[in-house]
Design brief:
6 strands, about 35% helix, 9 helices, about 240 residues, six-stranded antiparallel β-sheet, alpha+beta
Length: about 240
């Protein structure tokens, strides 16, 4: 990989728990520990026991998608929701590759990261991203955690175990407790409007590039764990 630019380092910084929690509460998604976060992103281990394989997610999402919404409203307290109640929705993505997102004379380090994925790989990663965004929008954090990388889950549970005011130290329980309820409307809008256009891959690391609210271009870091794409941040980083 060529030397990372400031934008790429900033996106990798979103892998840190602090950056993710700030973004989830509507704050700045950047972090002063960019170098540490980047190192974390390149050292996460594979295999996440409770999450579906990319192919399984694809079957349960794109092929077995349901147009109806999952039953839950935003969660409160430390329940984190019930993962089994989450029903994947159908989403239509734009595709087209990362060229469409490049900015002439701008910083295109994410848009030029690694190589462009083929259609099947893009579809598999897109299903995981959409399921994560939909579960997050519903406040079903237990379901959202199933689409997250092992490294992120471990960081979140470690945060909860440090006595930060939550009784439920599971991934879903911690996120339900610390998420700002005021962010719910924005999370719902982003989930509804998200349209995936590109997946840039280098080894087990990747970025899904998609358009969100009002056409904002967003990069979400992803990690491949044993053939399964996982979301590696609580929120993507705007590229535009």
């Amino acid at each position: 990989m060529r030397r990372a630019s400031k934008t790429l380092v900033a996106v990798l910084a979103a892998l840190s728990l602090a950056a993710g929690l700030a973004a989830c509460g509507g704050g700045d998604s950047s972090s002063s520990t960019a170098a540490e976060a980047a190192d974390q992103g390149h050292s996460e281990s594979h295999s996440s026991g409770g999450a579906a394989k990319a192919g399984d997610a694809k079957n349960g999402g794109s092929e077995g998608k349901s147009g109806g919404s999952a039953g839950g409203e935003g969660q409160s307290g430390s329940s984190g929701g019930d993962a089994s109640s989450f029903v994947p929705k159908h989403h239509k993505d734009s595709g087209g590759g990362s060229t469409q997102y490049r900015v002439k004379g701008g910083d295109n380090s994410v848009q030029e990261f690694g190589e462009e994925a083929d259609t099947s790989e893009l579809d598999a990663a897109a299903v995981v991203l959409h399921n994560f965004l939909d579960a997050r929008a519903e406040g079903n954090w237990a379901a959202a955690c199933e689409y997250m990388s092992k490294g992120m889950i471990e960081s979140i549970e470690k945060f909860g175990a440090q006595g930060k005011g939550t009784e439920d130290t599971s991934c879903g329980g911690v996120l339900a407790e610390v998420t700002n309820p005021a962010a719910k409307g924005q999370l719902q809008t982003e989930a509804a409007q998200a349209s995936v256009g590109s997946l840039r891959i280098e080894d087990e690391h990747a970025f899904v590039i998609y358009t969100g609210i009002e056409g904002t271009v967003i990069a979400m870091p992803m990690t491949n764990e044993g053939g399964t794409w996982k979301v590696a941040s609580l929120a993507g980083t705007p590229l535009s």
